[in-house]
Amino acid sequence: MRSNIKILSLAIACLLVIAVLFAVIPAIMPATPENSIPSATDSAAETVNLSATAAIPLSYTVSLDVNPSIELVVTDGLVTAVKAFNDDGLAVTLAVDVIGQSAEEAVRLIVAAMISEGYIVASETEPYLIVTVSNGDQLVVEDAAELLEKAAEEVLERQAIECEVRSAYVPDQVADEAAALGLSTGRYIILKVAAEQEALTLEEAIALYGSKKINELMKLFPDAKDAFKDYNKSMEMADDDEDPDDLDGMTPEQAAAFQAALDIFHQEMKAAKETFFSAMDTVKADLKSQLAALEKPSGNDKQGKKDYQNVVSELQDAAKEAQHQAIDDMKASVKAAQLKFAEAKIALGLQDVAVDEEPDEDGIEELAGDQDEDDAEDQG
Question: Is pLDDT above 80 for 61?
Answer without folding.
Answer: yes
